[in-house]
Write a structure and sequence with these properties.
Helix content: 40-55%
CATH architecture of the largest domain: 3-Layer(aba) Sandwich
Strand content: 5-15%
Number of domains: 3
CATH superfamily of the largest domain: P-loop containing nucleotide triphosphate hydrolases
Order of helices and strands: EEHHHHEHEHEHEHEHEEEHEHHHHH
Largest sheet: 5 strands, parallel
Mean pLDDT: 83
Bound molecules: adenosine-5'-triphosphate, magnesium ion
């Protein structure tokens, strides 16, 4: 069961969890005695002892009949992601499901444009949770990733207190000023996700752009879901955020970071899946043309290219062909528009040779 830790570190059930929703639905089925678990056991026994019975949808027992099996959670996640505009294969849906159930971050690696960032966005959309994004870059530090003290407000507070005390003829004391309270803390993405009153999705995008020292800043958040502020103490998450880290694999990430995450590699999809993705983004395109586009892109990816076309470039190409009113992929059209897919002169020549057009 999904859970979060309260401020005292005690595990608590997540009120928003899908599992809890299902348990509540079972418990509230009208006309059924006893606790939810008793009901499930009873239903299983009936199923074993009696000949199968079919209940109409509005019958109270229809919800728990052995005939009405609960959907496979992986299929359910795939469906939900599709509803949020993302076509996930079974491996991807499994990792998303497990990450939610175990409360673990997911590290997504893979080539550019294979849907790493989009997966986190779609999970936020499908769960209805706000997305908090930390865009990583070289030189990112604690004050941009975690928190910063609001020096101007602290200074103002100090001046106000000192003025009040000197009017009363007392010694102005810095310790009494209370300038290291939460109200003077400026939250950056990691702390914002930890302090959020509602569960959020945290996207730490392009983590491989961080240097090793900055990468180490993430470890406490990823394993303990907490942030230590020396002047204030430890701020612990009210709700465990769903965390996604993406990486283009430009450098090896530390073992410490990898150990804290579930791992998902997103490579290029099969021709069938890519054609489906194209149709999802460009529904006006015929299924036939979408398949032709995906098949040609797959051939190009097999060539020796500096930068193989990404899924986003396939989708751009499909839009281009739609704008040009193409009903069929011809050699001439391919030659004219190949620069939408390939962005190096040498790749265009190699691509044309590979395709023989
Ligand atoms: N499985 C998918 N279902 C639907 N759309 C997809 C899928 N995979 C990729 N896309 C689309 O491809 C585009 C690129 O995806 P995204 O930006 O997530 O790639 P990325 O892997 O994060 O790339 P980069 O490494 O360059 O940041 C998006 O418009 C996204 O909608
Ligand atoms: Mg990305």
């Amino acid at each position: 069961m999904k859970c979060w830790r309260d401020r005292g570190g005690r595990a608590q059930p997540d009120a928003g969890s899908d599992l809890d929703d299902r348990a509540r639905a079972r418990r509230s089925a009208p006309g059924l005695p006893g606790a939810a678990d008793d009901v499930c056991v009873g239903a299983a026994l009936w199923g074993a002892l009696l000949p199968p019975r079919v209940f109409t949808d509005d019958h109270p027992l229809a919800k728990i009949s052995p005939m009405a099996e609960s959907p496979n959670p992986i299929d359910h996640v795939q469906e939900q992601l599709r509803g949020a505009g993302y076509l996930a294969d079974a491996a991807t849906a499994t990792v998303v499901h497990l990450a939610g159930a175990l409360g673990k971050p997911v590290l997504i690696e893979g080539p550019a444009g294979t849907g790493k960032t989009q997966l986190a966005k779609s999970v936020a959309q499908m769960t209805g949770k706000p997305l908090i994004r930390l865009q990583c870059y070289e030189g990112l530090d604690e004050s941009k990733a975690i928190y910063e003290w609001d020096y101007r407000r602290q200074l103002l507070q100090l001046q106000l207190i000192q003025a009040g005390e000197s009017r009363r003829g007392e010694d102005a004391s810095l310790t009494a000023a209370g300038i290291f309270g939460e109200q003077f803390l400026l939250s950056r993405p990691l702390l914002a996700a930890i302090r959020s009153d509602t569960p959020v999705v945290l996207l730490i995008d392009e983590v491989d752009r961080l240097d090793m020292e900055a990468e180490a800043l993430l470890l406490e958040v990823l394993s303990e879901y907490q942030v230590s502020v020396p002047e204030l103490g430890t701020v612990t998450a009210r709700h465990i955020p769903r965390v996604f880290l993406t990486s283009n694999n430009t450098r090896d990430l530390s073992e410490a970071l990898k150990r804290r995450c579930l791992y998902l590699h997103l490579g290029y999809p099969s021709v069938e899946r890519e054609a489906e993705i194209v149709q999802l983004h460009v529904p006006e395109l015929s299924a036939h043309l979408a398949k032709q586009i995906a098949a040609l892109v797959a051939v190009l990816r097999g060539a020796d290219l500096k930068k193989p076309p990404s899924i986003s470039e396939t989708v751009d190409w499909a839009r281009t062909l739609l704008v040009l009113g193409a009903g069929e992929l011809t050699d001439e059209l391919t030659r004219q528009t190949l620069s939408v897919l390939l962005k190096y002169e040498r790749d265009i020549s190699a691509g044309l040779a590979e395709l023989g057009v």
